[in-house]
Specification:
The protein is mainly alpha-helical. The protein folds into 3 domains: 2-102; 106-209; 212-285. It is built from 10 helices and no strands. Helix 9 (196-250) packs antiparallel against helix 10. The radius of gyration is 27 Å and the shape is flat. It starts with a helix and ends in a 6-residue tail after the last helix.
Length: 291
């Protein structure tokens, strides 16, 4: 579906996008590292077309609503809001490849220690290097690492590259410095005739040590976050309820029903929102691994 939409956008505004393509050359490498399999002209066309569609749609929608309710000032307000939404859409397209690139790098870092142990086991059985990457590509549990291995295997089997050339391409397109060091190291060992099994064992031990260190750091951070959560949710909700009850008893200008509504909103909407944000924060901070 993404390819169909990118083709449609390129046909619609591709000629315009090509005029400004030099201003977005920085996105070319990010698209490759983020594993977004569309060309730079197509992506820029998507950015232009979608941002223009958001701007026009927002102007029609908000212009009608605000003009009917506020008159001419409402139209001006709708125009300003339209520019903001259109700019936000363009900025989102511009930043998205970089965000996805960093996300892939983080996922590769989390699963690479386990994948390297698997590679070491395969190397110990005398499996050839192309077969090692092919087997790794078939193990879905290693996530983004398996996808990187699949590209290496594809370059070898489909495009007829030798293992060294395929690993060099992988090192240039991967967003992970750890994976880049791994494939360069494998290439060096193969070139110099060293022991691939020994190299992979040493590298897996080093990567696993780094993984354990990050898990320990996360456990310390999690303890602090749990204390903050308890303070905000439990203690904070008790204090908030007590304060609103005291205010209700001493203030005659605030109706009890209003305070009850505020408490209901805080309990049934505020606390769940804070809890959801806490879960998202913890999930983003936690080291991954094989799931």
């Amino acid at each position: 579906m993404l390819e169909d939409y990118s083709d449609f956008c390129y046909e619609a505004v591709g000629s315009i996008a090509l005029k400004y393509i030099d201003n977005f050359e920085g996105l070319r490498r990010q698209l490759s590292k983020a594993n977004i399999e569309i060309t730079l002209p197509e992506y820029v066309s998507m950015m232009f077309f979608t941002s223009a569609a958001v701007a026009v749609g927002s102007l029609l929608f908000f212009g009608l609503i605000f003009t009917l309710s506020m008159g001419l000032p409402g139209l001006v307000f709708a125009f300003v809001l339209t520019m903001i939404l259109g700019s936000f859409s363009a900025a989102a397209f511009y930043l998205y490849p970089g965000i996805m690139m960093k996300s892939r790098a983080s996922k590769i870092r989390d699963t690479l220690p386990f994948a390297t142990m698997y590679l070491s086991t395969l190397a110990g059985t005398g499996t050839s290097l192309p077969e090692i990457f092919k087997n790794l590509a078939e193990v879905d549990e290693y996530g983004e690492v398996s996808k990187e291995a699949e590209k290496i295997s594809r370059d070898i089997e489909t495009f007829g590259m030798d293992a060294g050339e395929a690993m060099e391409r992988a090192a240039n397109r991967t967003p992970s410095e750890d994976f880049k060091e791994l494939v360069w190291g494998i290439n060096h060992v193969i070139t110099t005739g060293g022991s691939l099994k020994q190299f992979l064992q040493q590298r897996s031990e080093r990567l696993m040590e780094d993984y354990r260190r990050r898990v320990e750091e996360f456990s310390e951070q999690l303890s602090l976050l749990v204390e903050m959560y308890i303070t905000v949710i439990i203690v904070g909700s008790i204090i908030f309820t007590s304060m609103t009850a005291v205010i209700s008893s001493f203030s005659s200008s605030i109706s009890p029903s209003l305070l009850v509504n505020i408490q209901v909103v805080a309990v049934f909407f505020g606390i769940p929102m804070i809890s959801a944000m806490f879960i998202i924060l913890v999930d983003g901070m936690s080291p991954g691994g094989i799931r």
